[in-house]
Amino acid sequence: MIDTAFSTPGRFWRGNIHTHSNRSDGVLAPEEVCRRYAAEGYDFLAITDHFVGRYGYPITDTLPFRTEGFTTILGAELHSGAMRNGEIWHILAVGLSADFAPPASSDFVPVADQETGPALARRAREAGAFVAVAHPEWSQLPADEAATLDAAHAVEIYNHGCAMGCDRGSGLHVAEHLLNSGRRVTLCATDDAHFNEPDHFGGWVMVRAERNAPEDLLAALKSGAFYSSTGPEIHDVRWHDEGVEIACSAAVTAVLQGQGTRTSVVHGHSQTRFSLPYGKLAGSPWLRLSIIDKAGKRAWTNPVWCNAA
């Protein structure tokens, strides 16, 4: 099995790919948002302001705030079309060009005959963006409706702003429904920070690339060469014929998950290495790992596909 996050040349770069500024409904100016993430030790950031007419369809320019040790990727949170619950779609698009054509979405209310959410996501992906299903639990997005977003590379497995603001931060149910249907989506953790509550520095991606450069990071995101975390670090993962070996920061639990209810789990007190047998998971088409530390913080690998060459 191929795990690109731990086999791709390079090193891990820490980044947040979903954040807002005062170009839309965030509190802080883009320069200050970038300054705070850089000061917190992040290597990169995507400010993804709400791409609606109310705010002038912003793709926030963060190029002036790049430094030798900190870079940015342009992006936006896209909106268009009605979900079944009557609310407008929320679609994360990282790596948009500044001239991406806006949909006819003047505000956060869907209107007749506007571009659908799935069509908008396809257009963003065709334009070169990394596309993710944003905060499906917060959106109350059913798994079968999420499946219509066929251009999505990923699902937000964790959204810190939604976890802090309304205890709806998970994307696991939707992500695993898509995996079970054969969709090769990856799992990204994000902040969705607005800086109006404790919604920042809580969920991030660790992207493996040779350079901390926008084009390298974006290519790695698209290829799945990353893992997600709210705290623990995963240093290495090795998939063998009978099981998987993990090297990580101190953790108390490692869980191997796949299709269905069966899991393989090891508990400890302060372990930095785990070895988990596949056991009854050996027939699953996909496998993924969760690492949990003593504070309850988690890290998640992307799924690996057992029929991968």
What is the percent of helical residues? Answer: 10-25%
Give the count of helical stretches: 8
State which percent range the strand residues make up.
25-35%
CATH level 3 topology of the largest domain: TIM Barrel
| Relevant CATH superfamily of the largest domain | Metal-dependent hydrolases
Poorly predicted regions are none
Molecular structure report:
- It is a single chain.
- This protein is of the alpha/beta class.
- The chain folds into two domains: 224 residues, Alpha-Beta Barrel (TIM Barrel), CATH 3.20.20; 72 residues, Immunoglobulin-like (Sandwich), CATH 2.60.40.
- Strands 1, 2, 4, 10, 11, 12, 13, 14, 15, 16 and 17 form an eleven-stranded mixed β-sheet that branches. A six-stranded mixed β-sheet has the order 3-5-6-7-8-9.
- β1, α2 and β2 form a beta-alpha-beta unit.
- The longest helix has 10 residues.
Short account of what is shown:
This protein is of the alpha/beta class and 309 residues long.
Question: What characteristics describe this protein?
Answer:
309 residues; alpha/beta; TIM Barrel; Immunoglobulin-like; 11-stranded mixed β-sheet; 6-stranded mixed β-sheet; 8 helices; 17 strands
